[in-house]
Structures are given as structure tokens and as C-alpha cells.
Model the fold of this input.
Amino acid sequence: MARIEVLDLTFCYEGSADLIFEGVSFSVDTDWKVGFLGRNGKGKTTFLQLLLGKYEYQGRITASTAFDYFPYQVSAEDLKCLGVDLMEQWKAGCEYWRVCRELERLSVDAEVLYRPFETLSHGERTKVMLAVLFSGEHDFLLIDEPTNHLDQSARETVKGYLAQKKGFILVSHDRDLLDACIDHVLVLNRSTIEVQRGNFSSWWENKRRRDMFVQMENEKHRKEIGKLRQASLRSRQWADQNERSKIGYDPVKEHERGNGTRPYIGAKTKKMQSRVKQMEQRIGREIREQEGLLQDLECPVELKMMPLLHHKEVLLEAREYGLWYEGAREPVFCGMGLEIRRGERVFLQGENGCGKSSLLKGVLAACGGAEREEKLREMGLREEGVLRAASGLVISYVSQDTSFLRGSIREFCRERRLEERLFCAILRQLDLEREQFSKGMEEFSEGQKKKILLAASLMTPAHLYVWDEPMNYVDVFSRMQIEKVLLACGATMLVVEHDVRFVEEIATKVVKM
Done:
């Protein structure tokens, strides 16, 4: 068993004033199964790249093992290649028989290695990369969000596979996957990094208890500070009053006052002022201790959402509905029956490629009124059967694709007619740093880009919220914030999502496709 030691690590990107890490130190055993947690944009992927030696940094990282990283980079030219030809490119010295062994454990036939990579589904691509990744013997593996875009079946396969492995750091926001696969957590807190034994649920319970203790201690400090301030104010007032009484007095009313009174009052005032100074110093210490307690406390702000109320009970109805891509011999799906009533949160589930996202496109077109046929043609689709939307239905849509986000937040708000100050306030509530507001959105992490789309949807009043894999890349804390607001606001929703915990928490109805 070897160790990876990180000592006094400090790093920021060239040309940026924002420190990603500052004076970070911790250690990890190479036979641990480590879950890497933290808010979007806090540096999880950056740290994995530092382990790989991609960037220069201050401090020291020592390890007696080699690292390998998932996902492997796949260029446009690579998509045309066979998987068997990409293996050596991804992992030098990769042995074919070992990859085949790992594919068998992932319930995939080795014939996928002899198909062009672009013809493989998201699940098949992930499994091929994992098989190559784990075909080595002594590498410590860095696995970055392996379940994004995977259907529930593929997620279960990957979860079972990783649960049997060890010697990796897993970046994931899927609570179900983390609970099944890890035995330690590495957490990027607000200002510290901690390593703790256990899975996500045990860490979360420990954190909840610790946060409760911190909040109680903080309240105690607040009360103590309040008492000290009151006592300090009283002492200062007495001192000032005494100081003023040194000069001028009425000999009739204060006949006992003699020439020695003035130095006596001066000495008494000095003592009072000394007490005031001591109290102010103690107040300062209490405040610093209070701030120290709160430095890692997560206090997610409650989000708000204002859905529109439609006069009809049934907002969307599909009967024997199907969609075809132009020129295809078979439909994407057919014979679909669906009904969405006001206040329902309907989740679509099924394997990748079964038509979930296509159905959402059909729903968007159905709400386009006279432009319905034109919208379908633009998407290369034609429909059969009946898909009827309530008249005047307003939809708010979150796409699973974020690649179109370019330019500034101000331009995004202007294009979508969003009130910029309110939009930025929601982003802050989702823990997007203010420094990001001045950057182009193309520089954002995938999780930060997803928060842009979610924030825009949350602040858009609509009768129906159509979200396509909204939780991909979004951190655990933000997922919990979104769960809370969705449960509270009573919005009507049609959602494609594979996060088991999110579906269990939010869905009022699940439709299998």
C-alpha cells in the first residue's frame, strides 16, 4: 500500500487572480476508493489534472504510483476509428485480453471494439473506456463523472462494476453511486479540504451534526458578543461622563468636592477606559472565533420559483403518439400514451436511444401553435398519432446540451429577456462566485453552465417545466436546493433524469419508455 501526499498545494490558472487551492495538505492511500465531493467550480477536475502533471503549481505532490484518467480524450478523427485501434492510443501497453476481461465484467460483448466509436451509445463508450482504464495493474485511477448521460440500466452496471474495484478517486454528484462505490470521501469545503472514512451518506450525516453544533456555538458567540457590546457601551458612557465632570462644578451642590477630586476622577476614568479596551479586544476575539466556526458551514439559500397556474386540469395528452426521423426506416418510438395533469411531476425513464429527448422536442413543437410543423421539420422529425397541448401553454425548457452557451451573462439575459440583477442573485444562491459574472460562459465548468440554464428556468414563470437531464454535472448541494424548491412550489414538470435519489424525491409519476 502506497500513499499520495499533498503538501501545501497552491494553484491558480495563468492570468487569473483567483486561487483554486491555497496551502492545501492531505494524504490518500492508493488502495482506497475515494469519492471526491465539492461545489461546481471549486477545482475537482483541476486537482485531477494536477495529479496528472498537466499544470505547474506551488507546494508538493508525491506519489509512488502512475495515474490514469477517465474519460479519455476523443477527437473528431478518433470517432471514425475502431475501439480496438484507440486502446493503445489511450493507454500505452494496453493488453487486449485484459480489456476483454473487463468488458465481460461490464456485461458488454467484445465485438464493440470492432465498431466505429461514433456508432456506440453513451453507455457503450463509457464501458469501453472503463475497460481500458482498469486493464492496467498498478495505476491509481482518476475517474471524472462516469455516469453523466447514462440511462438507469447503464448506471447500475457501472455502479456494480466500480463497487468491486479499488484504488481510485471518483468525482461524482450521484449520491446513489457514491454510497455504493466508495469507502472514503475527499471533500472540498468552502475554505478547507478534509478526508473522512465512509461513504456519502455517512459523511452527510456527520456534516449535518457538525453543522448543527457549529450553529449552536455560533449562536452562543452572538449572544456573548451582544452582552459584551452592551457592557462596553455602558462603561464608555460612564467614562465619558466622569471625564466631563473633571472641569467645572457647583460649590453649593457639590460642597464636599475639594482640590484632590480632579486627579481621583481622572484615575477612575482611566480604569474605565481600560475596561472598555479589554472588552473590545474580547469582542474581537469572539468575532474571529465565530468566523472560524462558520468558514466551512454550508447554508444553502432557499430558491424561489413562481409557476403559472393554467385553467385546464390536463396540460398535455398523447395518444398512440410516435416520432420518426426523416429518412429513417423505423420510428424513434410509437404507440406512446401520456397524460400530464396540473401539479404533476412526470419523469421519463428508459434506455439511451429510446426517444425520451425526442419526445421532449415533440412537446416543444406541440406548444408552437401554427409553427408546429415548421419546428418539427427544423428538428428533422415527423409525427404520428395525437399529441395535444392545452391552449396558451407556456413552457420553460432546460436542454441537456450546454455547448451553445457563449458570451457574457449580460448578453444571455438580454437575449432571453431576463432581469439581470435577479438572474445573478439566483446564480449566487446556487453558489456561482461573483468573479464568474465577468467571464465568458464558454470558460465555465459544465456544472456552472448547467446552473445558467437552471437559473433561467427557475425565474421564468411557466405552466409546464420541461427539463432534459437537468442534474448532469450539478453538485450535490445545488441538487438538494433544487429538490427543495420543486417540492415547495407545486410546478408541473416533464423531466428526463437518471439520478435515482432525485427521481425518488421529486417524481409524482414515472413513465417507462
Summary: The chain is about 40% helix and 20% strand. The CA atoms of residues 18 and 247 lie 57 Å apart.
